[in-house]
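Duplicate of earlier report; Ketoacyl-ACP synthase III input re-posted below.
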Amino acid sequence: MPSTVIIGSGRYIPQNIISGKDFYSSEFYDENGQKIEKTNEEIVSKFIEITEIANRRYVDSDQLNSDIAAKASELAIQDAGIDKESLDYIISATNFGDIDENHQQSFMPSLSALVKHKLGIRNPKCVNYDMIFGCPGWVEGMILANVLIKSGRAKNILVVGSETLSRATDPYDRDKMIFADGAGAVVVSASDEEGVGIIADNTQCFNEEEIDYLKNGCSLNPNTDQNQRFVRMKGRKIYEFALKNVPVAIKDTIDKAGLSLTDIDKILIHQANAKMDHAIISRLHKLYNIKEYSDDLTPMTVHEYGNTSVACIPTMYDLIIKGEFSGHSFKDGSNIVLTSVGAGMNINAIVYRFPTKK
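Output:
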């Protein structure tokens, strides 16, 4: 049975840097539709203290989600050194598809079809799939790609995660400061080397009362158009859910790989917000009765790039593998974990082992 290995990666990080000061002129409302009386300087300062998100990136006005997905994908294909026509599948992870400046969402044609079109791929046997799975969508796309490769249905697969969340957020909601835009992509391929690539995976879906922790909702400002829909989340509920369930899911995946936490070189966790990620990693170590550990285990990009949902992990992977993430690198033969949690609520994780020669 072939192994599923990453042979190339790429990213697109928008150039427009949005700092906390850019929200000083915003008008914020609470969940009860009441205007928040605190100064915006206070609101922004508290937000940064909790999330550690100082900056985030937004796309240009003329860019769509499919545009930046195609840019990251093109770089990944070039890095892989393969003919784009040799791709068997394109799996595109997203929550909202293309969104225009009027907040109108579009899934027709599908995002993956648009990515294929913008890449100029003509091969009709290259199948396009959209993976709509919340923030864990890119990781789930990797899990699907692994199944397709191990079943013999594919040799080369592009897995891209992209989002323009700046257009999906309520301008009157403090939570808009969490979200950002970006794209990350990898090409995975079948390898004859055994025991490498994706060696274990785990997906769990909690769809009972958790179903509305992250969803679309109307603006918090009752004086605006209530027919428009934006990202709406129950932050405290998500935090409690993630802290309870994500560490266990990660441990289950590491156990499934026949490893222990001490065998893991890096954990690339979805960059939701720094407070939650730190708490998850701390709880994970407690499950292994480990009291002291290094922050080097868990790279963080959320401080400068914000929460780009499905794009977080592939972007971080590309930064590290290209040697552009100070203090972090991957080693031949080492094990890493890729893990995420998001709308659904869904959780997933992968243990990935690098080939002996990348």
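The CA atoms of residues 14 and 130 lie 22 Å apart.

Merging into the original ticket.
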